[in-house]
């Protein structure tokens, strides 16, 4: 070894942790490029900051981070015009893990004026070592700004590194990665461009990739969310929306604000104007992008709850602590506060836009079912979400809300009534509504997949209980109606008893009802258990429901009159058919479709009820 080359052992902590950094700390190899670019950007920010108080340190006007792939030599070089490192800096910063110049330098910022503080990205001093994920040897040649002396640090990632004098015409740093055999992709300019645009597209330092001697810009360098709203046109918002969300439409809502105070962050969020091509039911996590000082960190930070997962955009903070890999966020109070603030801001926007009628209806048709999930999942936000919900109704055209429903309730009406089924078109024709319509009582019609769950979670709105019309025990007798068919026939109690005996084990009860007008029968659930829709979902999931349904009969219907006044033998043969009719009306299949079809056919041929 030349006398000018000094060999040093890594600090003990490096020997223990370097293998962990290379093989376990990062889940994606391409992160190495983000880390090295972040370090280069920090170095240039540091030089710019120190130039405020020291002459001769100003950045060159064309300063940038240059990335140079060399396929022949199998090297990847990153060069910057930053503050650079002295011999001592190289030994301290690269020879001891978690002792980066960035972290040490941040301590000098305490006395600096806020508007003079550079936006430093690195904090933990381990990002540099990610280079060994793709390289089996790394050399770093650096010259400290204000010094004429340059040094080269080199290591193969083992237990030692070397330092030797070098030459560099200008202050700054060159990092040369001698790539491993399985890292050929990082010699391709298009791959490097993709990684830079993914992770560092919006940092202010220019980044260029050198290809065949030509420099091609690899980042925008402008974080739109950091600009004042007055400086941004609608076209720029739309362009960014399409870029960040891979959309082709225009946003339905744009939310751009900066939170200041104890916790500072910038946010630029969008509510899409149309449903995405990929169903949001398949991906239940929010994909709002988290940036720290413009550098992309992750889109899996859960910045919004799953019931707002249709919202897209960016949140950028200066203050959020990260763990050493920057890929897994610490569960800090700061992150929780950002989540609460962002969620609250989105809900405020929706509450404001909910007054717009037709425009809000467009949003609701796109994302209403997802927003409803918040009632079921988020106890803390239920009261804020409930007024935002919209429904079809048995009484009015178009969409209506819970506040509107309450304003139309009849005198003496104590509950908000709703009906849930799979088929939206069939809901309006359901026999379950007949008695309510006859008495002018409004029923909300729910047909989304989540509608079987959230009403029970909400339970009440403006002190009015929510109640499914399929749950038995609804007393409509106090409301005057347009019941047809005259008085109930004699023998109805005997008929009820005979039906109950014939259907023993298939229904929990049989009873006469006053909530039917045109239909002969209807099913209901007990007043304390799940409603009929929930029971159907449980059966489809292979889980037994909590009880059997109740068969309710309309004593004024001609079929029921005929059975009540006819021979007892007709009751036994008709009982199963009545139950199947009630099941079909509620969207279920007959217990035995073939047998039901034969029974109906025989009855039609005989010219009498089945």
Automatic annotation (TrEMBL):
Annotated compartments: Cytoplasm
Region: A, residue numbers: 1-326
Residue segments, region C: 537-610
GO terms assigned for molecular function: ATP binding; ATP hydrolysis activity; ATP-dependent protein folding chaperone; unfolded protein binding
Residues engaged in binding ATP: 35, 39, 80, 85, 93, 100-101, 123-128, 173, 326
Signal peptide residue numbers: none
Principal location: cytoplasm
UniProt-listed SMART domains: HATPase_c (SM00387)
Function summary: Molecular chaperone. Has ATPase activity.
PANTHER family: HEAT SHOCK PROTEIN 90 FAMILY MEMBER (PTHR11528)
Protein family (similarity comment): Belongs to the heat shock protein 90 family.
Entry protein name: Chaperone protein HtpG
Taxonomic source organism: Methylobacterium durans
Lineage, top ranks: Bacteria, Pseudomonadati, Pseudomonadota, Alphaproteobacteria, Hyphomicrobiales
């Amino acid at each position: 070894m030349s006398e000018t080359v000094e060999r040093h052992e890594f600090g003990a902590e490096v020997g223990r942790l370097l293998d962990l950094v290379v093989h376990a700390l990062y889940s994606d190899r391409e992160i190495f490029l983000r880390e090295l670019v972040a370090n280069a950007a920090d170095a240039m920010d540091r030089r710019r900051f120190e130039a405020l108080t020291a002459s001769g340190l100003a950045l060159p006007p064309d300063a940038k981070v240059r990335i140079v792939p060399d396929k022949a030599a199998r090297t990847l070089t990153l060069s910057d015009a930053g503050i650079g490192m002295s011999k001592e800096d190289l030994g301290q910063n690269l020879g001891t893990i978690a002792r980066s110049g960035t972290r040490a330098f941040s301590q000098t910022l305490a006395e600096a004026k806020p508007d003079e503080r550079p936006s430093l990205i690195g904090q933990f001093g381990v990002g540099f070592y990610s280079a060994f994920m793709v390289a089996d040897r790394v050399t770093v040649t650096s010259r400290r700004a204000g010094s004429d002396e340059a040094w080269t640090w080199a290591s193969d990632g083992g237990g030692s590194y070397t330092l030797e004098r070098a030459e560099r015409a200008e202050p700054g740093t060159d990092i040369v990665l001698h790539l491993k055999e399985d890292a050929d992709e990082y010699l391709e300019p298009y791959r490097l461009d993709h990684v830079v645009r993914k992770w560092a597209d919006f940092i202010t330092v220019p980044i260029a990739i050198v290809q065949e001697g030509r420099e091609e810009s690899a980042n925008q360098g402008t974080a739109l969310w950091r600009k004042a709203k007055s400086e941004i046109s609608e076209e720029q918002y739309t362009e960014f929306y399409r870029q960040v969300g891979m959309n082709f439409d225009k946003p339905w809502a744009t939310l751009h604000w900066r939170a200041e105070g104890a916790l500072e962050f910038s946010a630029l969020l969008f509510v899409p104007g149309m449903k995405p091509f990929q169903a949001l039911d398949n991906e239940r996590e929010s994909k709002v992008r988290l940036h720290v000082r413009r550098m992309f960190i992750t889109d899996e930070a859960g910045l919004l709850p799953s019931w707002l997962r249709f919202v897209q955009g960016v949140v950028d903070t200066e203050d959020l602590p990260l763990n050493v890999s920057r890929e897994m966020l610490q569960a800090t109070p700061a992150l929780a506060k950002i989540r609460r603030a962002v969620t609250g801001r989105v809900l405020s926007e929706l509450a404001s836009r909910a007054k717009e009628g037709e425009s809000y209806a467009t949003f609701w048709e796109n994302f209403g079912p997802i927003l409803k999930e918040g009632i079921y999942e988020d106890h803390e936000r239920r009261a804020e979400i409930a007024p935002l919900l919209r429904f079809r109704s048995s009484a009015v055209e178009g969409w209506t809300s819970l506040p509107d429903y309450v304003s139309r309730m009849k005198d003496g009406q104590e509950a908000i009534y709703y009906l849930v089924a799979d088929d939206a078109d069939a809901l309006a024709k359901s026999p379950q509504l007949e008695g309510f319509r006859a008495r002018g009582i409004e029923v909300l019609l729910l047909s989304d997949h989540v509608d079987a769950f959230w009403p029970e979670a909400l339970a009440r709105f403006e002190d009015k209980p929510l109640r499914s019309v399929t749950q038995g025990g609804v007393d409509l007798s106090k409301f005057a109606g347009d019941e047809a068919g005259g008085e109930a026939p004699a023998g109805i109690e005997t008929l009820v008893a005979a039906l109950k005996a014939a259907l023993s084990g298939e229904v929990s009860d049989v009873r006469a009802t006053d909530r039917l007008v045109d239909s002969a029968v209807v099913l209901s659930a007990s007043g304390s258990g799940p409603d009929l829709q929930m029971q159907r979902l449980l059966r489809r999931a292979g889980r037994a429901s909590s009880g059997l349904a109740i068969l309710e009969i309309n004593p004024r219907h001609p079929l029921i009159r005929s059975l009540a006044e006819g021979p007892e033998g007709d009751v036994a043969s008709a009982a199963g058919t009545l139950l199947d009719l009630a099941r079909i009306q509620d969207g279920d299949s007959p217990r035995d479709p073939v047998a039901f079809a034969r029974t109906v056919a025989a009855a039609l041929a005989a010219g009498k009820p089945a």
